[in-house]
Specification:
With 231 residues, the chain is mainly alpha-helical. The protein has 11 helices and 2 strands; from the N terminus they run αααββαααααααα.
Length: 231
């Protein structure tokens, strides 16, 4: 199965601006760009052999997605979340994913489960190979295809928006062996539950699944705040 890093970025407009946006998005996903890190226009223009206008258009696309922020006289930077923001965003993710899972008619037809299992096989091969790009692509595709089964495209769009919004939060999980093993186990449970009739169990595993990276990110923020409070 051919996987890619598809996002809400529009395919219309300047192709180079789109390329810039996707490259920065990928850098955030894989932790090459850290929360709060500056994105100077002149550096990006040189990196991509682009005009300032093309760089600004690419950054504007990412700003609309909510994964970079622009401040007056300070430029653009990777979005940095506070402890409260992370908790609130994940509370919304939990609500959306729980409701999407509860709306999936169970049991799911076997051809659809077979397709999901094939995506998960790609994910597990990517984990075994340590291929971060394919881990991210297969993971997001797996979850979006599960939530697509709810039959509500607007709800699916909101689920995806909040998945994208937490790129920086989720980045560390793509290379953490313990998180990856937990993710693999959860994926297999989800597939099994899709064959059954327990909607509440499916909804709960979809919520449990997003907790490890949230907990990990909050721990980092707590450590930083503790260091800042030291005399």
């Amino acid at each position: 199965m051919d996987l890619d890093l598809s996002t809400d970025l529009a395919s219309t407009g300047d192709p180079l601006a789109e390329q810039i946006a996707r490259a920065i998005e990928e850098d955030i996903v894989f932790g090459r760009l850290k929360p709060g890190q500056k994105l100077p226009e002149e550096d990006l223009a040189e990196r991509f052999a682009a005009s300032r206008h093309q760089v600004r258009e690419g950054l504007a696309r990412l700003s609309r997605m909510g994964i970079v922020t622009k401040e007056r006289n300070r430029g653009v930077s990777v979005r940095r979340f506070s402890v409260d923001e992370v908790r609130q965003i994940y509370e919304v993710r939990e609500i959306l994913q729980r409701q999407a899972a509860l709306r999936i008619p169970l049991p799911v037809d076997e051809p659809k489960i077979t397709a999901l299992a094939a995506i998960n096989d790609d994910y597990e091969r990517a984990v075994a190979a340590g291929d971060l790009r394919r881990i991210h692509a297969a993971n997001d595709l797996f979850h979006l295809e599960i939530f697509r089964l709810c039959g509500n495209e607007r709800l699916l769009s909101l689920v995806k928006h909040y998945m994208d919004l937490t790129y920086a939060v989720r980045a560390a999980g793509f290379s953490d062996p313990e998180n990856l093993e937990t993710s693999r186990r959860h994926h297999r449970i989800m597939i099994r539950l899709l064959r059954g009739k327990d909607s509440w169990a499916l909804a709960q595993i979809c919520v449990d699944h997003i907790q490890p990276t949230k907990t990990q990110y909050l721990a980092v923020l707590d450590d930083r705040e503790t260091m800042n409070d030291l005399p």
